[in-house]
Amino acid sequence: MCTLCLSSGLSRRLFLGAGAATLAAAPLIGSAHAQPARAAETPDAALKLLVEGNERYVSGKINERDFSATRAARAEGQKPFAAILGCADSRIAPELAFDRMPGELFVVRVAGNFVTPDGLGSLEYGAAVLGTKVIMVLGHASCGAVLATIEALQKGNTLPGHIADLVRAMKPGVEPALKEAGQGLEQRAIIANVRYNVQRLQQEKPIIADMVSSGKLKVVGGVYDIATGKIAMV
Ligand SMILES: [Zn+2]
Predict the structure, then answer these.
(1) Most CB contacts within 10 A, which of 16, 58, 123, 140?
(2) How far is the CA of 109 from the centre of ligand 1 (A)?
């Protein structure tokens, strides 16, 4: 059993509910009794930090960073205040887009920013063990994974290799946008995919759903505009 985790101030009941697998996995990523201070202690405060950080990023007024000054503290552990489920797209860097330091964001990335079993386990670990207060599903404009899924749904084409698996997994999130009439299918599909995965996470029992219903965690959606860097809540 991970005694470090149990001594971190987190709910013992939550740990027992989370099961042995979560406890056993805890030392793999890092100690939960971290030395650095957490930047936010409530879901609303955590979301506010993300929003304010993105505003600094968009306006070009990002904080000056001395990464070496806080390196030693990070070696003692981590206390990220937010988790991001983002796309693998190389044009979006969450720590930059939210103007945050290493150790503050727990980032899971997969092309198309959708929930996978492994990604879900990572997000559960972030929330239950590391204490993240908010999870943001972060989609973005011009997402190749969303566009490929739209094309596969419209034309019935099959993509090579395991890309086909990715597109298949994204269909439930993208498909609702195709059933709506009107312009802007790409943007509607990007938003639909984010909202689908937000709802999915909110309902994932036992860890995330329970933390959401008890007010310890929020799951929200955002879409990053590559041209401006601005993240709109959706
Ligand atoms: Zn993408």
Answers:
(1) 123
(2) 10
